[in-house]
Amino acid sequence: MITVNNDPKPPPVGGVLWSMVGDIRMLLTLPPALTMQVAHPAVGAGVDDHSVFRTDPWGRGERSLVSLQLWVYGGEGAAEEGRRLRRLHKTIQGTDAHGRKYHALTPAYYAWVHATGYPVFRYAQQYLGRPFTEAQERALYAEWLQVGRILGIRDRDMPQTIEEFWPYYHKVLDNELEATVVVRELIATDRPVPVPDRGPRWLRLLLRLTWPWLGPRFVRFRRFLTIGLMPPDARQAIGLEWTDAQERRLRRFGKVVRAVVPVLPERLRFMPIARRARRAARG
């Protein structure tokens, strides 16, 4: 008997996401996307009540990054990762700061978490790489919809075209987003961040020794990138300030990134899951 696998497939090899998601520049886009997600009161409440982002920020970040790469480079394992995430979110529920009940898998909330990726990737690309052409923007959106299917997001719960996306996006900005407790924590510069506990032993030892000096600088840099790489309309909706001087600094930073990252060897430019997938695709 022939078994038919109806699992949604990952985005195509060689597509826009294939080139982006494993690149180390993707690390810089995660903070603004996460902050836009938790600016929704229901999502922010779920993270506030159930996430370990305060006690294990590095572990949580690593798991999110691995999951993102599996959606794109995971092959047949991509759909299983999507199912795993849905199982993980089944028990996440409670009441938000406005007294409204939430559940992590409520379609509108679950879709918003996914939707934030598209405007952040699109906006950050202007600083970290070459701006997308219109054709690339459309391909990116189509591929991001495909990732949504891997996550179990139904087509009726996400706008299916770019033309439908922007009215949906601005409606959420205008009516839902706010500076939640979690947003304020993510951009705070007076809250200590634990010493990173990932990597080789020598690196962990070095970080423990230098973290009293490095830690405060890291949180200021994180705030800078979180706000700077967030689309201005989302920044305004949440109430985050951004000055002309900061914009000039971000443009200078982006210029360095655009010059350095493309010339790095593959083992330094791409993260491990992406490197393995790229080697396999080349045969």
From TrEMBL:
PANTHER family: BLR2777 PROTEIN (PTHR36151), ER-BOUND OXYGENASE MPAB_MPAB'_RUBBER OXYGENASE CATALYTIC DOMAIN-CONTAINING PROTEIN (PTHR36151:SF3)
Top-rank taxon: Bacteria
A single MF term (Gene Ontology): oxidoreductase activity
InterPro entries in alphabetical order: MPAB/Lcp_cat_dom (IPR018713)
Protein name, as recorded: DUF2236 domain-containing protein
Domain ER-bound oxygenase mpaB/mpaB'/Rubber oxygenase catalytic intervals: 18-259
